Amino acid sequence: MSHAPADGPHDARPGRHDARPGRHDVPEDPVASAPVVVDARGLRCPLPVIRLAQVAADAPRGAVIEVWATDPAARADIPAWCRLRGQTYLGEVPAEGGAAAYRVRLAS
């Protein structure tokens, strides 16, 4: 007669996760999911996109890059760059100093 261990894959206790491949309930690594910030405040078009491209070239797949920009052209330029480069535009949120933060997830 065999008994399943109490902490097996169906254990519902808080903090317990089944790490089998294909499971989506395993928490993300908070360090890996923190966005990389590109501070392009005060830079005019096309510099915010150029800085984004430079950082994206060295960032790992799936990374989130947040471009802080004050140039109004960045609102159109960054989503356009994402479409041209096959990246995911995550949207715009307020940032420090009156800037907007444009969030991009690199293709994985």
UniProtKB/TrEMBL annotation:
Domain UPF0033 stretches: 38-62
Region named Disordered: 1-33
Record's keyword terms, sorted: Transferase
Keyword rRNA-binding among UniProt keywords: no
Superkingdom per UniProt: Bacteria
Stored CDD domains: SirA_YedF_YeeD
Biased composition (Basic and acidic residues): 8-27
Single GO molecular function: transferase activity
Family matches, as InterPro entries: TusA-like, TusA-like_sf
Record bears the keyword Repeat: no
UniProt xrefs under PANTHER family: SULFUR CARRIER PROTEIN YEDF-RELATED
Similarity comment: Belongs to the sulfur carrier protein TusA family.
Protein name: TusA-related sulfurtransferase
Taxonomic lineage: Bacteria, Bacillati, Actinomycetota, Actinomycetes, Micrococcales
